[in-house]
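Hi again,

Forgot to attach this to my earlier email, sorry! This is the prediction with nicotinamide-adenine-dinucleotide bound. I've pasted everything inline since the attachment limit keeps bouncing my files.
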Amino acid sequence: MKLCKRLRSSNGQLQSSFWPGVTREVGMDLVDMGIKRVLLMTDKNLVDLPPVQTALDALKKAGIDYDVFSEVRVEPTDISFKAAIDVATQGKYEAYVAVGGGSTIDTAKAANLYATYPDDFLAYVNAPIGQSKPVPGPVKPLIAIPTTAGTGSETTGVAIFDLTDRHVKTGIAHRHLKPTLGLIDPDNTKTMPPVVAAASGLDVLCHALESYTAIPFNERPLPERPLLRPAYQGSNPISDVWALRAIELTSKYIERAYRDPDDIEARSNMILASSMAGMGFGNAGVHLCHGMSYPVSGMVRNYRPEGLKTDYAIVPHGMSVILNAPAVFRFTAMACPDRHLEAARLLGASISNTSYSAEEAGHLLASEIVRLMKALDIPNGLSAIGFTKEDIPALVKGTLPQHRVTKLSPRPASAEDLALLFDDSMRAW
Ligand SMILES: NC(=O)c1ccc[n+]([C@@H]2O[C@H](COP(=O)([O-])OP(=O)(O)OC[C@H]3O[C@@H](n4cnc5c(N)ncnc54)[C@H](O)[C@@H]3O)[C@@H](O)[C@H]2O)c1
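Structure tokens for the complex follow:
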């Protein structure tokens, strides 16, 4: 595939630029927005690597005054969000530049929100954990420069964090949180370690699969007013286009991107797929794989994946999501078997006839996911990262409040269903 050398496109609120090297434009973009002083946010693994150094060079060349905040926590928490919010509030910045993966971009969204509209921390957090207060208005400009491929956070109005005392992930979701501009630079993913390429690439796949199989938008209740419309609205003809293309690209390139960091064609297509999946799920939403992943991340005990630099136990986000995926899609296939079959076909399943049962459709899709998990050296199920059957009640308890996403499942999942799904996810093959 020939990649367009430069592409700048607009999707509603979001603008994005895509080409290898586009990070070098960030200073000029800020000048064009009339901005003189920014906070550049990143994590401590990335601060000395080329993505951040390139962005800093660009700010210097354009004469932008900046501070650097490199204390983003990988897999952020309420505590790490608050530390970033304090710095943003005190600095009175005109805009923000986030250079990193979803952890960094989400932290920048939260810092920007609370520095612009200060409130109790739980005010804007999704109900029932927080109060789900709508964001009062536009926030300051945020330029998001992703370095993983990825969360698609550069396209979404969502910021995810772990609520430490409850051991559960939750988030803030509102369209005003969407970054002003995404600079999608394939060069920035060259330094991504294999485990990050695998986990973040499988996150792309789940974003696309879940948004494509989410409950249709016209089966959800109409909000009283547009301001109250949830960021995640259910699958719809527009998000389907993004999701299907993201599945195709991921199917074609994820293994190459994992095996060879210098395969720029594969890494370029994966970062494109990430943004495309983001446009899809940022409107349609995700469902059970993500809903069930939040307690998996929150309850991690000792697991530390090989190749990831951290001082603490961690399940990389995409890994926590994909570990539940085979069981989830076997379960949800009953609701929309044709969509599960189409997704399986795009991932490479040979579909020989049109008379598959819903159960067979679910199994076909689950088998393709398991094939990719093996190819990307993902652990064999929740048991391989330290969970046991005794954890199932707590995992279910942590999933039940995730209404924002679980309600988008095409097949409602009761507490008993979730317990069976976690049990089924203990081993993937
Ligand atoms: N806002 C959204 O729409 C959204 C969607 C999905 C996930 N998320 C959230 O995003 C977070 C996960 O983000 P992620 O998967 O992008 O990874 P990440 O930001 O957590 O980074 C993972 C690791 O990779 C390293 N890293 C990232 N890019 C690198 C590069 N180019 N070179 C070397 N090292 C690099 C980081 O330092 C870190 O150690 C989770 O908290 C998840 O819940 C948000």
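Residues 109 and 177 are 6 Å apart (CA to CA). The first helix runs from residue 26 to 32.

That should be everything now.

G.
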